[in-house]
Structures are given as structure tokens and as C-alpha cells.
Amino acid sequence: MSGLCSFFCLLFIFLGLTSLGCGHGSICVPQNADARESAALTALLPAAREATWTSSGHLLSVDLRGAILNYEQLTELSTLTELYELKLDATTFPADGLANLAGLPKLSALSLCWTNVADSDVAAIAKSSSLELLDLRNTKISDTSLEYLLGSNRLRFVFISGNGLSKVAIGRFKEKRPECHLQ
User: Among 41, 77, 107, 153, whose Cα sits 20 to 30 Å from the Cα of 130?
Assistant: First the structure.
């Protein structure tokens, strides 16, 4: 994932975003933090491992890797309208619990490696109008998920290694979405 992190650092610089953050398990909240977003992040503690804030006080990125999330916490996530990146690797969440994430207007990168994500979750996520990168490595999605993702026009990178997807479904996706890198 370090290459992916480098990609986002460069993307943030390119887009003119600046960030404040604390890593390695500590969560820092800047003084100018948006009160609503700060409250939502507080509701996610102690699940949150890392959070990155923009210089204007909005949450840019949240790392919840390895957490066990309930519907209430997922609802809190859906209120973070400035959120750009969400890491849910090795996270456990209720069935069909990711539907609200599709409504996040700026969510560009979503990582769901090693999760219990289902085809129905992918169907909901595919409705996102902002998602550009989706990491589904080592999940139990089926060929149906790739069908759902065909309609996600902004999607540019989908990581799928470690899944039981058929060569036919992968080929069909690549044929219909040549601009989207499927790895």
C-alpha cells in the first residue's frame, strides 16, 4: 500500500490540498476542525487509527483498518461530506452496511481489503459519483461485483487480486472499461 499512499500524496499536492494529520494510532484534532466532523470522528473512536485534516479543518482521510463497526458508526461516516479517502481494510461491518458511503460527495478512494464486503455492498458503492479508486483485494466478491462497477464512470483503479473472479468477467470489464485499471 505504500505505493498507493505515495500516489495520494502526489494527488493531494496536485489538487492543492494541504493536510494536518497524526499517524500511528494517535488522532489529533486541529483547533479549526469542523465541529460536526470532529464529533463524528469522536463517535468512531477508538476504532480510528489515523485521521488527516485539511488546513480548513475538514476531515480528508480516515483510517479504520481492523475495526469492528456497527450501523451507528457507519452512519457517522456518511456525515463526513468532505472525506476524500477511507481505509477500511480488515474491518468488520454489518451486512449491507456500506450503502451510505456512496452518498459521500468527495470520496475518491475506498479500501476494503480483507473485509466481508458483499456484492450488494459493491452495488451500493458503485453508485458513488466521486469514487476513483476501489481496493477489493482478498474479499469474497463475485463476478456480479464487476458488473455493478461497469456503471461507475469515474472509477479509474480497481484492485481485485486474491478474489475468485473469473477470467471471463475480468475480460468483459476490461473490454467495456479500458480506461479503468483493473489489477
Answer: 41
